[in-house]
Amino acid sequence: MKTLSETRLFGGVQGVYSHPSAATGTEMTFGLFLPRAARTGKVPLLWFLSGLTCTHENAMTKAGAQAWAAEHGIAVVFPDTSPRGDGVADDAAFDLGQGAGFYVNATQAPWAGHYRMWDYIATDLTRVLFDGFALDEGRQAITGHSMGGHGALSLAMGLPGRFASVSAFAPIANPTQSDWGRKQFTAYLGADESAWSAHDATLLMRAHGFDGPVLVDQGGADQFLGLLRPEALAEAMVARRQEGIFRMQPGYDHSYFFIATFIRDHIAFHARAMADSGGSGAGS
Amino acid sequence: MKTLSETRLFGGVQGVYSHPSAATGTEMTFGLFLPRAARTGKVPLLWFLSGLTCTHENAMTKAGAQAWAAEHGIAVVFPDTSPRGDGVADDAAFDLGQGAGFYVNATQAPWAGHYRMWDYIATDLTRVLFDGFALDEGRQAITGHSMGGHGALSLAMGLPGRFASVSAFAPIANPTQSDWGRKQFTAYLGADESAWSAHDATLLMRAHGFDGPVLVDQGGADQFLGLLRPEALAEAMVARRQEGIFRMQPGYDHSYFFIATFIRDHIAFHARAMADSGGSGAGS
């Protein structure tokens, strides 16, 4: 692992690091905010998965998460959204290829070689984080925005027991029924739709839900509501009797201004769930 | 109007009053909590509509609303759920007739004579309250439980501009598709289902929604989830992009213990919406 930068922020440290990933076969970069409490013990970890076109940097600089993470004494990791580099397949479209990994393990050419973002998040980066920093593996939560909200919900429901809580900002909520999903799943996973259902939050919610609290915020003036399909997830959550809260926030669009407005609530939500989850760390 | 009792509570007064209603043609009883602030000026008013089998008394004594209403300086009215008396039609079933008015104006025999609970709430009791007490007619909000949640949502959407906000605890959310609804609407309104749609929160939400914030709490262990159909309302709220919050509360049932646990949030929600709504009273 290489340290690219470390900067004091709200009494803690905002770091940027890179490391080789076996999953993607590339060097990967991530941001990690460690609160002051991490100097003296292990702290809970919140994952923030970003959306289309983003790197590790967008949410780290624009979401405003660190102020509240510092207050609650929790760390936040900001992974990249895809493998990158000259040897990595790409596409001219903004919503396929680099910056658009969709948090799946691609099985189709030309993507299968490097596009293994599910394994990257679930395994590779996980080991880098818990082996390298003062983080409590027993206290993890996950959130994300748009494509990253899809990733957060999919990983949370796909890895039972791993995360104490999951939240999302304007997630791609039903990708198997959206042009944000069908295009990418066809490319990465192939035309057989049976391989897609493990990566659709609405289908996962209908099938088994999440063993913990769920919080979803959606802007009412979001430019992409037709692609996000939040109503499908809301229906599935309530039909499942899923512990959770779905909030429609009128006037907010799809931008980081929307995230910055409500991230405080999400951090408090996850901090409480992680405190309740009984982790093993000194940060408890 | 007759004063049946007035009792000091949280620095204010819990009163019980009765009055003749032109709508129902009967004497009607209601509870009204006035906070201390009503001694010196007009205060905002929250309506609490109760559920099947309830009188004005159940929520008044079991919901725990007054503690938080006092803190926010708002009044709460607890109407009865139907006309009552020897000359009033009734049914042996708990969910039809006395105690089960469903907040509609009945058009069918033998109910049409007295069962006009929509007009009673919307007009008769309204005039009694604003003519007789220090209440700010420009600042009203409405909530309710079960059948009363249905009533609150229906009245809020059916009387645009009247209420600043609406909330509900475990509302009968889609009565035209439930045995809690089809039976009563057939009896009170007749078999022509076109007359029912003005009294179904899900259909009203799909048609035009509510011009203000909506808050719904539903217990995950509610005994009546199949009759309440909360998932239909959740889907409709998000599909409409309705400003609002839908919360599934795991482990809570249909009882007043569920209401008492979350009424604090509802009072704060309505107090804020009424403060934002710019009423005319000295309580502003």
TrEMBL record, chains A, B:
One of its GO terms (cellular component) is cytosol. GO terms for biological process: formaldehyde catabolic process. It comes from the Bacteria. The active site is at 146 (charge relay system), 222 (charge relay system), 254 (charge relay system). The keyword Hydrolase applies. Serine hydrolase involved in the detoxification of formaldehyde. Belongs to the esterase D family. This is S-formylglutathione hydrolase. It comes from Rhodobaculum claviforme.
